[in-house]
């Protein structure tokens, strides 16, 4: 490929809304362009990287006998009603209606679809195990789409699902996926940490997350010399279970007749009873925070800031919320229009979510009910963040922490979906049993950001060879010089024939700009044909080195191969 023909508009400056080094470099290098918050187009360079990651993932899936399929992105609501997740999934689910006003979702994940697919076709344990995967777009209306491809609203995921007649068969397949995921990261050449994870909204029994280590990773990982490693959510959950018997399971919701009134709370919030209060619990750098915002608005960082400034927003730590309002965290609002209120409880605060669901299930419907006045939650204060230095749940030694980017997540789902959706097979004895499932996600597009977060320097991206958009860039310093032009084309042909993917920088711009772009877009090796070509010398510079190596080509290009 000639650079003069490549559609790769590079930029000197990153756009103001690029909030992390990886997305800054990806935009500046002409890899991607933002269309809307969390929605991106991939330009040729970005698409090449995406395809390379996809290929590695595909090869490792095929190697463990998983078979590729393609399922629809648009999924009928009926299937999600069967599992209850149409209601449980919350505002992250993108919903739509067709012309007949039937509801659909743009799939955030595919457990329902695949369970449905197989329940009509699978009959006997003899057909099991089965392992299927797809590589397709997923849609999640993330509350805070940010960090470019890392937390986007449309993203490419590899999602695999396995079906078994026995738990031991699931264990075996789960191990294979564990191995394949480690191999994917090793092949790309990234430092990573596998941690025990909380299975969150997907549900299930055992689960591991594969995290690329990076300073600005969104996940906090805790690990210990004894080999134990877990996401902070999981470690927190375990610690609570151990130290406080049943602290999570036993959250009691008790009516409290004499708590604050709607008016008092409204006054504090400076909202009228007609306003809608959205509450958001999120994990800030110093712990859990709660934000309350007036109006039925999308929350994002700049709105949060603005709302804070004009004081329509209250931000407080859990203890402050309790002190100020006499209401436990997460339970201020709804006031006024109950249907439109969204309580978004990060599932990391598991107890709170249980409590919200519990409150709803036990008939505390939100209309006319003021949580805190009408009920409160005991032991919410047991929800403490686990941090560095806290005792390891396995051996008690102080744990260390690291930041990571979750790129892969594997779950043992068990029979959660087959039970809810009537997925049966007959076992050896002829009995009908629910098939046992596993599911395995990989964020293909997020991996791009994770790579750049880990591998960059002040000049740009440093792609590992396995996923680089091109292997070699041949920089013809002055393309108008007939010897440079002839030799660089000759070199380009030789390298291409030898199986390398080569980008020939034949643009009529200054050498400085060429070098800058080459560093920015991060191609692993640069071969420069410049002034010294007259003496039969070219420069070879790996992207990771500061100084080039001079190589003589007097006897031809063989020395370069
Ligand atoms: P997170 O904790 O970051 O929100 P998740 O646990 O919700 O991710 P999963 O449901 O486990 O995500 O999905 C499988 C994989 O899909 C994740 O490990 C991640 O690599 C990728 N992924 C999830 N959400 C996004 C997103 N908003 N943008 C890009 N990739 C994503
Ligand atoms: Mg998520
Ligand atoms: Mg997660
Ligand atoms: Mg996950």
Please outline the helices and strands.
Elements: H1 21-28, E1 32-36, E2 39-42, H2 44-63, E3 67-68, E4 74-76, H3 77-83, H4 85-88, E5 94-97, E6 103-106, H5 111-119, E7 130-139, E8 154-164, H6 167-188, E9 192-196, E10 207-213, E11 219-223, E12 229-231, H7 232-243, E13 253-254, H8 262-269, E14 277-284, E15 287-294, H9 301-309, E16 313-316, H10 318-325, E17 343-345, H11 350-361, E18 376-377, E19 400-414, H12 416-420, E20 424-426, E21 432-434, E22 436-443, H13 444-454, E23 456-457, E24 460-461, E25 472-476, H14 482-497, E26 502-505, H15 511-521, E27 525-529, E28 537-542, E29 549-552
Parallel strand pairs: 3-7, 14-17, 25-26, 25-27
Antiparallel strand pairs: 1-2, 4-6, 5-6, 7-8, 8-22, 9-10, 10-19, 11-12, 11-19, 13-18, 14-15, 15-16, 19-22, 20-21, 23-24, 27-28, 28-29
Helix pairs in contact: 1-13, 2-6, 2-13
Bound molecules: adenosine-5'-triphosphate (ATP) and magnesium ion (MG) (3 copies).
Adenosine-5'-triphosphate is lined by residues 109, 140, 142, 151-152, 155, 157, 200, 406-409, 441, 443, 445-446.
Plain-language structure description:
β14 (277-284) and β15 (287-294) form a beta hairpin. The strands form eight sheets. Strands 3, 7, 8, 9, 10, 11, 12, 19 and 22 form a nine-stranded mixed beta sheet that branches. The radius of gyration is 27 Å and the shape is elongated. The two termini are 19 Å apart. The chain is built from 15 helices and 29 strands. Helices cover 29% and strands 26% of the residues. Residues 240-299, 307-364 and 366-384 have low confidence and may be disordered. The longest helix has 22 residues, at 167-188. It has 561 residues and is of the alpha+beta class. α2 packs antiparallel against α6. Residues 109, 140, 142, 151-152, 155, 157, 200, 406-409, 441, 443, 445-446 line the site of adenosine-5'-triphosphate.
């Amino acid at each position: 490929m000639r650079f003069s023909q490549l559609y790769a508009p590079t930029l000197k400056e990153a756009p103001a809304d690029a909030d992390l080094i990886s997305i800054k470099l990806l935009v500046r290098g002409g890899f991607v362009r933002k269309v809307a918050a969390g929605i991106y187009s991939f330009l040729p360079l970005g698409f090449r990287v995406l395809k390379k990651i996809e290929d590695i993932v595909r090869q490792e899936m095929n190697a463990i006998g998983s078979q590729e399929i393609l399922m629809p992105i648009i999924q009928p609501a009926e299937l999600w009603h069967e599992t209850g997740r149409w209601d449980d999934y919350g505002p992250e689910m993108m919903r739509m209606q067709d012309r007949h006003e039937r509801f659909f979702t743009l799939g955030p994940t595919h457990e329902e679809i695949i369970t449905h697919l197989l329940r009509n076709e699978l009959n006997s344990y003899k057909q099991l195990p089965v392992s299927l995967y797809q590589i397709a777009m997923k849609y999640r209306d993330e509350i805070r789409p940010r960090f470019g491809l890392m937390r986007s609203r449309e993203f490419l995921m590899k999602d695999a699902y396995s079906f078994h007649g026995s738990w031991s068969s699931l264990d075996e397949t789960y191990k294979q996926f564990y191995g394949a995921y480690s191999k994917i990261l090793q092949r790309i050449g990234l430092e990573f940490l596998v941690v025990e994870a909380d299975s969150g909204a997907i549900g299930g029994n055992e689960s591991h997350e594969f995290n690329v280590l990076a300073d600005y990773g969104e996940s906090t990982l805790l690990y210990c010399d004894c080999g134990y490693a877990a996401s902070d959510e999981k470690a927190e959950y375990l610690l609570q279970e151990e130290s406080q018997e049943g602290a999570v399971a036993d959250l009691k919701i008790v009516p409290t007749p004499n708590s604050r009134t709607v008016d008092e709370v409204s006054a504090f919030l400076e909202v009228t009873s007609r306003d809608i209060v959205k509450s958001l619990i999120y994990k800030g750098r110093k712990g859990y925070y709660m934000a309350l915002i007036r109006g039925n608005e999308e929350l994002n960082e700049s709105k949060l800031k603005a709302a804070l400034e004009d004081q329509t927003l209250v931000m407080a730590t859990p203890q402050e919320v309790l002190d100020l309002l006499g209401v436990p965290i997460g339970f201020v609002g709804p006031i006024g229009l109950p249907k439109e209120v969204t309580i978004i409880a990060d599932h990391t605060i598991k107890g709170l979510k249980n409590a919200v669901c519990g409150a709803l299930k036990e008939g505390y419907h939100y209309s006319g009910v003021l949580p805190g006045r009408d009920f409160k939650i005991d032991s919410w204060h047991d929800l403490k963040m686990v941090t560095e230095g806290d005792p390891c749940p396995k051996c008690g030694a102080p744990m260390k922490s690291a930041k990571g980017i979750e790129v892969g997540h594997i779950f043992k789902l068990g029979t959660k979906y087959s039970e809810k959706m009537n997925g049966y097979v007959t076992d050896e004895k002829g009995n009908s049993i629910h098939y046992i499932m596993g599911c395995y996600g990989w964020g293909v597009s997020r991996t791009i950001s994770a790579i750049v977060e880990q591998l960059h320097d002040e000049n740009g991206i440093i792609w590992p060879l396995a996923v680089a958009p091109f292997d070699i860039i041949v920089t013809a310093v002055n393309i108008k010089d007939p010897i440079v032009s002839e030799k660089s084309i000759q070199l380009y042909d030789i390298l291409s024939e030898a199986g390398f993917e080569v980008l020939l920088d034949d643009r009529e711009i200054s050498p400085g700009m060429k070098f800058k772009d080459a560093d920015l877009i991060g191609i692993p090796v640069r071969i420069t044909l410049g002034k010294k070509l007259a003496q039969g010398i070219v420069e070879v510079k790996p992207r990771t080195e500061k100084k080039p190596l001079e190589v003589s080509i007097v006897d031809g290009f063989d020395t370069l191969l």
